[in-house]
């Protein structure tokens, strides 16, 4: 198939899962879809509030975006739709440009969603899925924790019957502290009852519609307290029950100003979706294509922008529930979108009975669940570089803007990756018996004796322009310590060699020969050998100096070693030393 044909395959309506899901599978999908629909009904409202949009926009997103992303995505169980992280980024990006909830704000959100979808679709068709692997998972962990803190603080005011204020975390906390005397105890009681109910339901069973139960009990508490007397705010009736077709307002000047925010939202959405999709694919043993997922996410957001939806992505909570409920294919998410439409028609008239403090409690619960304490502890304990990435992303998100935090996280992640690539491990190896097998280990770390004439060096990492300086310094330190030796350079741990790397090999070979020694390579990988030939390394080294295995390289070099030095050597570093003339002499 041509490259063009393979790209168009991403857009095909003939999805593979349509052919391998039987009747029983679709029945299981229907049950899982119904369970998911009951969860997302209040969740969609909560996420829309976080995004600064009318409640119905979160529900529309949970219908259109969910169905399209499921059909064209790569995961069999991941459910897409409105998410807390994207909702928070969208609010942070647009609230300075227009009043949240206003017509202008809504128009900006829909245009931003279209731009996000176009960027994601273009990335998928361009085959950029592999680039996501270069962005550390710690970026998402730190970013999600920062978003959770901002979301929780933003809803603390409504839960207490106060105005939430504006700005970042510190501004909102100071605003609440300044107005704490106006605390509404009825609002606090309603929020408390709702929160306790949700927590209790999750302890009993994750399949219970805990958000709906919590909102119902919160509304009942509000009724018993008397809403008119208490002054507790209630939700306005939904502006529309089902989405309608309406094109975003195109304005190139506005699009230009929204581009940085669109790039941030697109990146967050893809990171969320691909990380969730991959994790479930690994657990279930399913195939997964990051580029196909990018296309699915892009198409869902493009389509959604024409149906009053804002940007969505993969939801870990809904995906986990979907998998636990026995979902067999993406039809479960499509069923969930259909059932949600039915529930919306049936329950929409009752939205006006939902008190704002009850929904604030739901959102605070969602925010708390977003912070993955175990994952944060794992990062802090295992890796200093990942801890730095997580901290940079989290602190930027808390003390600055969320869209800027994701940029800082990505730049930090890539910087750490490039720094590691530029500093590969360069170590001298020596044989050591491990369970009666000869294994080459780091001679310096394990205090192993080295051969007097042959230095065995292994490089773990790319041999390219950015790492040459570090590798060359390591070689000079070896020479300063033990003098010149013939070098066996093991390239099995080298995945990439560029022109600078080839020049380094040639330079080291010439340097060794100028001092009466030589350079031999261990390179069995055909792609590495082809690069060495193409860059004329083998013309200088000679084919005889390139070996496929350690034993072959060692045997060739031991045979060429000075008999006089071998005769007085007491190290006997290699097994091949036993066959050396006069080697047994003291």
Description:
- The protein has 586 residues and is of the alpha/beta class.
- The strands form 2 sheets. A 6-stranded mixed beta sheet has the order 4-3-5-6-7-8.
- The longest helix is centred in the middle third of the chain and has 33 residues.
- How confident is the prediction overall: mean pLDDT? 87
Strand neighbour order, sheet with most strands? 4-3-5-6-7-8
Low-confidence stretches: none
Largest beta sheet, briefly?
Answer: 6 strands, mixed
| 3D shape | elongated
Strand element count: 8
- Number of helices in the DSSP assignment: 26
Distance between the termini: 67 Å
Q: Classify the secondary structure makeup into a structural class.
A: alpha/beta
Helix amount, in percent?
Answer: 55-70%
Rg over CA atoms, rounded to whole Å, is 31 Å
Work out the strand percent: 5-15%
What would the keywords be for this entry?
elongated, 586 residues, alpha/beta
Describe the secondary structure blueprint for this structure:
Blueprint lengths: L2 H7 L7 H4 L2 H28 L4 H18 L6 E3 L2 H11 L8 H23 L11 H23 L9 H10 L6 H20 L5 H16 L1 H4 L21 H33 L5 H16 L7 E3 H9 L6 H17 L8 H15 L2 H10 L1 H16 L2 H20 L3 E10 L2 E6 H4 L7 E7 L7 H15 L3 E5 L8 H16 L4 E4 L3 H9 L2 H5 L4 E2 L2 H11 L2 H6 L18
Parallel strand pairs: 5-6, 6-7, 7-8
Antiparallel strand pairs: 1-2, 3-4, 3-5
Provide a compact summary of the structure.
The chain is of the alpha/beta class. The protein is built from 26 helices and 8 strands.
């Amino acid at each position: 198939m041509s490259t063009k044909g393979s790209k168009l395959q991403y857009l095909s309506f003939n999805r593979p899962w349509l052919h391998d899901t039987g009747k029983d599978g679709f029945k299981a999908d229907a049950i899982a879809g119904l369970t998911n629909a009951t969860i997302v009904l209040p969740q969609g409202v909560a996420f829309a509030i976080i995004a600064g949009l009318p409640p119905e926009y979160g529900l529309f997103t949970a219908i259109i975006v969910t169905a399209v992303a499921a059909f064209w995505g790569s995961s069999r169980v991941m459910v897409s739709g409105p998410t807390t992280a994207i909702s928070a980024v969208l609010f942070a990006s647009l609230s300075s440009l227009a009043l949240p909830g206003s017509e202008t704000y809504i128009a900006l959100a829909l245009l931003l969603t279209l731009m996000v979808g176009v960027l994601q679709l273009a990335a998928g068709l361009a085959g950029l899925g592999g680039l996501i692997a270069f962005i550390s998972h710690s970026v998402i962990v730190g970013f999600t924790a920062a978003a959770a803190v901002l979301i929780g603080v933003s809803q603390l005011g409504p839960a207490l019957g106060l105005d939430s204020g504006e700005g970042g975390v510190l501004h909102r906390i100071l605003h609440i502290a300044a107005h704490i005397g106006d605390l509404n105890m009825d609002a606090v009681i309603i929020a408390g009852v709702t929160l306790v109910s949700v927590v209790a339901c999750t302890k009993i069973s994750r399949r219970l519609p805990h958000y709906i139960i919590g909102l119902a009990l919160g509304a009942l508490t509000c009724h018993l307290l008397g809403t008119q007397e208490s002054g507790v705010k209630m939700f306005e009736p939904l502006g529309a029950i089902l989405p309608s077709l309406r094109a975003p307002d195109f304005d190139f000047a506005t699009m230009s100003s929204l581009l940085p925010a669109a790039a941030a939202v697109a990146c967050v959405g893809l990171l969320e979706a691909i990380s969730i999709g991959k994790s479930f694919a690994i657990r279930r043993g399913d195939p997964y294509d990051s580029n196909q997922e990018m296309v699915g996410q892009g198409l869902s957001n493009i389509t959604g922008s024409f149906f009053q939806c804002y940007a969505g992505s993969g939801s870990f909570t809904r995906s986990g529930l979907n998998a636990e409920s026995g979902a067999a294919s993406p039809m479960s998410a499509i069923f969930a979108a259909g059932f949600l439409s039915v529930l919306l028609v049936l329950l929409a008239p009752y939205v006006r009975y939902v008190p704002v403090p009850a929904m604030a409690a739901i959102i605070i619960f969602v925010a708390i669940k977003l912070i993955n304490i175990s994952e944060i502890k794992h990062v802090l304990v295992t890796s200093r570089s990942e801890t730095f990435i997580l901290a940079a992303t989290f602190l930027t998100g808390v003390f600055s803007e969320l869209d800027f935090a994701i940029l800082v996280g990505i730049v930090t992640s890539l910087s750490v990756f490039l720094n590691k690539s530029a500093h590969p491990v360069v170590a001298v190896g020596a044989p050591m018996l491990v369970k009666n097998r000869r294994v080459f280990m780091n001679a310096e770390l394990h205090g192993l004796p080295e051969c007097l004439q042959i230095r065995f060096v292994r490089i773990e990492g790319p041999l390219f322009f950015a790492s040459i300086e570090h590798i060359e310094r390591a070689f000079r330190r070896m020479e300063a310590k033990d003098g010149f030796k013939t070098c066996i350079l093991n390239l099995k741990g080298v995945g990439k060699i560029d022109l600078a790397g080839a020049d380094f090999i040639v330079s080291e070979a010439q340097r060794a020969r100028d001092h009466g020694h030589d350079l031999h390579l261990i390179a069995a990988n055909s792609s590495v050998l082809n690069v060495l030939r193409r860059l004329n390394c083998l013309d200088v080294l000679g084919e005889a100096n390139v070996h496929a295995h350690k034993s072959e390289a060692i045997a060739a070099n031991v045979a060429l070693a000075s008999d006089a030095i071998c005769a007085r050597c007491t190290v006997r570093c290699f097994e091949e030393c036993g066959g050396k003339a006069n080697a047994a002499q003291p």
